[in-house]
Amino acid sequence: xxxxxxxxxxxxxxxxxxxxxxxxxxxxxxxxxxxxxxxxxxxxxxxxxxxxxxxxxxxxxxxxxxxxxxxxxxxxxxxxxxxxxxxxxxxxxxxxxxxxxxxxxxxxxxxxxxxxxxxxxxxxxxxxxxxxxxxxxxxxxxxxxxxxxxxxxxxxxxxxxxxxxxxxxxxxxxxx
Length: 176
Prior knowledge:
The protein is an alpha+beta fold. It contains five helices and eight strands. A hairpin with a 5-residue loop joins strand 1 and strand 2. The longest helix has 14 residues, at about 160-175.
């Protein structure tokens, strides 16, 4: 478990300060693509959360900011525990190297869009060996076969950025 818990820090920035910083400085995020592997390391399933974003219901992957003075490994563990529960039992890689890096910009037409900020997301494929349960910000957590994950119908349930992340993860694992 991460030694840094965002709840223990109090509000690390007030909403006004966070909005100001987001307009001035790129924010660092981690994205987690949860997977189940068989005993030979072959992909069996990819896990996705079902979340409410405003008045839209969509699928997503665990994601979140890296806090000040928090290592990337600690941020990954913290977000996995927050979004998938303490019993997800992630198999963290010995070397923390993302499989891709994605940039989000506040302006349409400049790549992926996050209207709040310029963000840089480090993405990781993390095998889970335990029970994954949705955190309080999610409605459910579901495992999908690689075949299901490749369907346009399922990818349409993801934001544009997370649909691209799914396709990149499938390609990295050799399933696209």
